[in-house]
Amino acid sequence: MTGGQLNGVTVLVVGAGIMGVGIAQVAAQAGHAVMLYDLREGAAGEAKTRLASSLNALVLKGKLGADAVAQTLARIEPIDALQAAASAGLVVEAIVEKLDAKRTLFQRLEAVVAADCVLATNTSSISVTAIANGLQHPARLVGMHFFNPVPLMKLVEVVSGLQTDPVVAQAIFELSQAWGKVPVHARSTPGFIVNRIARPFYAETLALLQERAAQPALLDVCLRAAGFRMGPCELIDLIGQDTNFSVTSSVYEANFYDKRFVPSLVQRELVDGGLLGRKSGRGFYDYTAGAASVALPAFEALELGATPPLTTALCVAGRGAVAERLASRLVSAGCAFERDADADWIGLSADGAQLRLTDGRPASQIGAQVAVFDWPLAQQGGAALAWAASSGASPAWLALAPQWLRVLGFSPRQVADTPALVVARTLAMLINEAADAVLQGVCSQDGADAAMKLGVNYPAGPFEWLQDWKRGAVIAVLDALDAHYRGERYRVSPWLRQRTWTEDGT
Ligand code: NAD
To answer: Are strands 155-160 and 182-187 parallel, antiparallel or unpaired?
Structure first.
């Protein structure tokens, strides 16, 4: 079987909820005859009526052609009984997220559809291997995991269970492409690709909140400045604290309580208190005043402050993109400075005090007159950047360090002296999780990058960040976190470690 053989087949979509209707729309727009079935009587017809009114509204706005919409709608037929679907060449299931319900449905369907009909499940968290258990032909069951809203989100995770025939997975991969999507192969493991690799984006912020390293708005501003469309706190409020907590808990449980995925007490308290985010009016932020969204300054103009004394003896330490960036900023600011390219750290020394790019260690562990700053991803001047000072820093250096950060083009945000600050910590853990996913054969490097960019709109993929930050720096950050906290959470993925031994030491 090839994707070509699925072209033009009749598609049965089971479950006429938010995902099922989106899948029916996309299949019909690609020219398939679509049957839509829902357990609740009348639900499929009502869903089609709702779809018609939203598509017709897009016609009125000039975004879709009237003929195309009429043809799409004409191809979607609500049906009242599964028995009417005997002619389907592909079933896409989007019913309630319960293993028993999905298993029972597919077992019933096997008695209705032909032996070569492909069975696809849109499950977001249940094992495809487990759903296939008990089927007469488990090899034809595959995960076809769309993202919400289906017509807009490009990613489809094509999830193979233990018994899925690779030919069936490839057929769904090619069909997804024909439907205008970007498919990525994944192995059926907890969270598949996106929901697994994304866990640290939330978890590291929750850990920082738990140790009171910073407030939610500061963490959101720093991660937005790194290119994320939303910071973790505002995003969790949008998703719902309860939904986010339950995905984390299910990934944690499914991984036999691996400490890497341990849920957060901070979030548990919000859930227990009914502070679920936007939907309840309050989560990390307060929405009761009717605010549709929290206004966070993504980038602030360079704040004017006292200029550091120009007589300071300055030296830019280290090599690489960040050192070059600091040097060019000093040139623009008209400051004279020396270079020490052989230094084993990256940053600026000012009359002997050090402003260092984080290597993962807290500033206090490095020395007294030390401040550390976060990985600067944003190229825009004035982007928010976390920094922290050593507990031994003099009052003079405490005042000067953020001023130098301003001269260097950042909008400094002080956080507690915590290892790897905000962006470095989060990105290193995202990279580490992606590395483990590749190690375990869940997906390829390209697959992980595409999935995170298209499934959750990350500004770059984890392996693209790894290119920029080099394995040595990422491992140093993870090792520093591991040394600081102890336990399994920050263990370095063997995939990263092995490449450092066998490749060029970057
Ligand atoms: P939903 O609650 O909006 O819709 C589910 C529909 O399935 C309901 O209309 C319900 O009546 C129907 N249904 C329940 N049991 C049925 C059965 N046995 N036979 C036929 N119909 C049945 O849910 P949703 O958000 O569309 O999610 C559906 C599936 O898609 C779930 O597996 C979910 O995990 C997955 N998913 C959801 C999202 C999302 O963001 N909502 C994203 C990706 C995947």
So the answer is: parallel
